[in-house]
Amino acid sequence: HSVKLTVLTGASAGAINSAIFAWLRHKDFTHYSSDSGEGAAAAKNPLFQSWVNAIDMAKLTGTDDLDDLGKDVQPLSLLDSTPLDLIGEQALIDAAALTDKVRDWVADPLRVYLTQTNTRGVPYFVGFIDGSGSGQGMVQHADQARFVLFRDKVVNAASPCTLGDHDHAFPDERALAGQPRVVDGWRQLPQAALGSSAFPIGLAPRDMTAKPEDYLYRITLPDPDQPGSSLPQSYLAVQPEGEDWPKDGSLTTPRPYLGMDGGIIDNDPFGLARDMMAGRYGRNPRDGLAANRSVIMIDPFPERPPPGPTDRQGQSLKSLLGTLVNVLKLQARFRPEDLILAQQDTVYSRFIIVPKREGATKQQYHLACGLLSGFGGFLARPLRVHDSLNGRRNCQRFLAKHFTLPRDNPLFDSWRHAAWAGDYDAGCGELPIIPLLKTGPYAIADQAAPAWPAQCVDPDLSTRQIMDRVEKLVPAMVDLSWLMRQAVKLVVYPKIRSLVKGAIRKAAEEWGVLNRFS
Questions:
Q1: Which long-range contacts (CB under 8 A, 24 or more apart) does 363-369 make?
Q2: How confident is the model over 431-473, as pLDDT tens digits?
Q3: Other CB atoms within 10 Å distance of the CB of residue 286
Q4: DSSP class of residue 434?
Q5: For the segment 57-97, what is each residue's pLDDT rounded down to a tens digit?
Q6: What number of helices (H) and strands (E) belong to the chain?
Q7: Who's near 375: CB < 8 A, 6+ residues apart?
């Protein structure tokens, strides 16, 4: 039967994965079922190379960005973001060098939508009906960088009203054709992915641009004059309007903005994929016998966060600032309708996959890189190797046991009664949407559960790397006198060093990955 991947959406790390897969969609890359090492062979899988080998705390705490600062130019981030540009560029180079391999299960064209926080914002205005010119001005900061990838040649832009016609590029999509190349058009994709993953304060924002026509149909409302109509023309588009954004269509130059982490506003952009498949006002069939398309939600952090403060006792300005950041982060991750529908046994239009490790005593220990709020993976390569291999095992279990439909769904008409169909029964009278073949040239062996990466985090080493960055970052941010510099060295730096080392040691010990000989 035919199953196609039609759209990828992502925020933050998910945006990076989406971009790299877009390059690899028709490339013959190596799948690693065990650690490939750090040699040249790893370049045969840019996903593995980028996430496991190429990035670590030593690079993020480098000072290349500070060395290049001009006079009176302030740093843009706590961490050095310049290695990310190099990793993205190398991933594109490696992907372009791989042998071509057409995958018919990748739709032509393939959509890639990456959420971003647009710091400049897009202005909107609602005028009062009295004709005075007064009204309510608003700014939309939730944004997306949209790409459409064709196998051969670009099909010209379709009217944005034709929501059911997915064979064309829409006006707000950047069209790319053929295999990835190290040219300007293809370089826009990693830039957008890095913008989507620019964790605020931690990583530097990215210079982005968007065409005015990108926003002509971003906000739409059902047409009240055609209630209940399913015609493509039955909605009203709300167009941007502001002092530097005229509504009459005379604005034609791209609008620049700083792109920051898409997760600030929309960390789980499942709705973008749903809208592309179903149409803005359509619905993907949910019933098991009618379902013909679905969204797979990948949630790397399914932990249960502790509750926030309940009263003012023991609170301070400092603690409340931290609480505010945590509230915004957790709220951006939370869309109850998506989670509820994904968990319903009777809903087959949404599925969810989360990290799972056999024998884990606590929920957060399914993900080795989960310590220090997800930044712990940069401390040691074995943490990243574990999660990469365990992710493969999780995906196999998901396809075999959870990504299923009732066996009477029309998808299985050509093989549900075959003698061998029972070998793939997932239980409860359901069959896998994507069967993992057990024999023949396409058979895939079960991914072994990786050993937990114990004793791999060295707090002393990580603290030295972080302090090397801090001791160069502080003078770049603040112009200190000689006397103040000495005071900072004697008082401030030791305090920061103690806090950093203590936090790393505590987290590593709790996660069971502390190197006790360090």
A1: 363/302, 363/303, 363/304, 364/303, 365/511, 365/512, 366/302, 366/390, 367/300, 367/301, 368/452, 368/453, 368/511, 368/513
A2: 999 988 878 888 888 999 999 999 999 999 999 999 999 999 9
A3: 15
A4: S
A5: 999 999 998 887 776 788 999 999 999 999 999 999 999 99
A6: 13, 12
A7: none
Cβ contact 25:110 at 8 Å: yes
Q: How far apart are CA 78 and CA 57, in angstroms?
A: 12
| Six-digit token string for 22 | 């877009």
**DSSP for 281-327?**
T-----STTT----EEEE-S----PPP---SSTT--HHHHHHHHHHH
Residue 463 tokens, joined: 């603290």
CB-CB contact of 196 with 116 (8 Å): yes
Instruction: Give the Cα separation of 404 and 395 in Å (integer).
Output: 13
Greatest mean pLDDT among 211-220, 412-421, 467-476: 467-476
For residue range 127-141, list pLDDT tens digits in order: 887 777 788 889 999
Distance CA 412, CA 72 (A): 66
Q: Cα separation of 51 and 194, whole Å? A: 13
Cα–Cα–Cα angle for 389, 356, 398, nearest 5°? Answer: 80
pTM: 0.91
DSSP-assigned states of every residue in 149-213: EESSSPPPPPPTT-TT--SS--TTSEEEESS--SSHHHHHHHHHHHHHT--TTTS--EEEEE-GG
Distance CA 398, CA 406 (A): 16
Q: What is the pLDDT of residues 353-391, one digit of tens each?
A: 989 998 887 777 899 999 998 889 999 999 999 999 999
Say how far apart CA 274 and CA 111 lie, in whole Å.
Answer: 12
Give the torsion through C-alpha atoms of 302, 308, 310, 313, to 10 deg. 150
Q: Sort strands 135-150 and 174-177 into parallel, antiparallel or unpaired.
A: parallel
Closest C-alpha among 49, 47, 75, 73 to residue 61: 75
CA 236/CA 222 separation, integer angstroms = 6
